[in-house]
Specification:
single chain, alpha+beta, six-stranded antiparallel beta sheet
Length: 389
């Protein structure tokens, strides 16, 4: 059976590699087409566009590998059926469970490759591609908001330790590729959500160890006191009057700021969750949860990062029934077309469940695992049908 296992592995690996290269070439062509309108503007040349598309390829490998594994396995199984090789294998005492075990072991290699690209390579190459593009065009990173990037952290009595004394909203107009921030605004509130200070800095550079150096700084401090109107204390709980009679403004050439916000968190806050690694998503989700911000989108993306590569097992199981279909059931081209439709359907269902889970506030794990579970049931049903017939 070792020879048979090796024959399965070589045949499927060759087919999957061919399909993967075809998909990557197609995706690269689409990416290059979308970059062409920017060529010739602000110093962005065709060489920059080609290099940008080339650096994005590892991320594309992660996205298309499951479908490539499906189509490549279907092609191999259809070839075995058309040449009656699979019939001979079955006559030589190879059971369906044994064939499924062969596919599982081969799929494990594809899953590992997908994890390597998704967790180790793509999260590093995607920011590199963005930095290359921004540097070539001489622009900076900004968010979809006109006011720039926004994030929040907790102000503590001893820097990063101690009791929380308030909250700080971090606003950056531009985050440049060299790591510098421009037009920085910090809004600090106390535990009663009263404005305590506003810090405006022209620039900021990260010194490491959660320390920022702010340059050309203007700080406005407000002296607040909590006072309730006489006679309404019982009816107006938590109401307060913010007194701004005591306002102090101080200017300085530079000052240091200790904050939970790091350049990684700022870059992540402006990134698409689909292009982030599971480790980055876990760190950023914990940061959002600590600051009582919405985390559902990033939780779903985190679980999808872990579960989507495992869908390779499910899709390869869906390909196994094609080995039982003889030529009279359709040629290889028809079976490949069916495989493409299954792959497209899986991608559409996966995306649909992500949006439905976000809108309906379903548990993130169930939202991520539901498409794979649905197609696994389909694969088991198909195997049961071919066994019966």
């Amino acid at each position: 059976m070792k020879i048979l296992q090796r024959y399965f592995a070589v045949s499927i690996a060759q087919a999957v590699a061919f399909v993967l290269l075809a998909f990557l070439a197609l995706q690269a062509f689409v990416d290059l087409t979308s970059e062409l309108p920017m060529v010739g503007k602000n110093g962005y040349s065709i060489a920059h566009a080609f290099l940008y598309v080339l650096i994005l390829i590892p991320g594309n490998v992660y996205q298309v590998m499951p479908v490539a594994a499906l189509i490549g396995t279907i092609y191999t199984m259809a070839q075995f059926a058309s040449t009656s090789e699979f019939t001979i294998m079955r006559a030589a005492s190879m059971s369906t469970s044994m064939a499924a075990w062969f596919l599982f072991r081969i799929g494990a290699v594809f899953v590992i490759i997908t994890f390597v690209f998704g967790e180790l390579i793509a999260p590093r190459t995607a920011p590199l591609a963005d930095k290359l593009k921004l540097a070539a065009r001489g622009t900076a990173v900004s968010s979809e908001f006109r006011s720039g990037l926004w994030t929040k952290d907790i102000v503590k009595s001893e820097g990063l330790k101690g009791e929380p004394t308030g909250a700080r909203f971090f606003n950056v107009r531009e985050a440049r590729p060299d790591g510098q921030l421009t037009d920085v605004k910090l809004y600090e509130f106390d535990n009663s959500f009263r404005l305590r200070s506003v810090i405006v800095a022209a620039r900021a550079t990260y010194q490491g160890g959660n320390v920022w150096r702010l340059l050309d700084v203007t700080e406005t401090r407000f002296s607040n006191s909590t006072t309730l109107q006489p006679g309404v204390e019982a009816n107006l709980q938590n109401n307060f009057i913010q007194e701004t009679s005591a306002v102090a403004t101080e200017k300085s050439a530079s000052r240091e700021l200790v904050s939970e916000i790091t350049p990684q968190i700022l870059s992540v806050s402006a990134s698409d969750p689909q292009r982030m690694s599971a480790a980055e998503l876990a760190v950023y989700t914990a940061h959002l949860a600590e600051n009582k911000q919405e985390t559902e989108r990033y939780k779903i993306a985190f679980w999808k990062k872990l579960i989507d590569p495992m869908s390779i097992f499910v899709l390869m199981a869906l390909a196994l029934p094609f080995a039982y279909l003889h030529t009279r059931s359709g040629g290889i081209s028809l079976k490949i077309f069916i495989g493409i439709m299954i792959g497209v359907s899986f991608l559409l269902v996966n995306t649909l469940f992500s949006h439905l889970g976000l809108l309906s506030t379903w548990p993130a794990f169930l939202t991520a695992v539901a498409p794979s579970a649905l197609f696994l049931l389909l694969a088991l049903g198909a195997l049961w049908w071919v066994e019966r017939h």
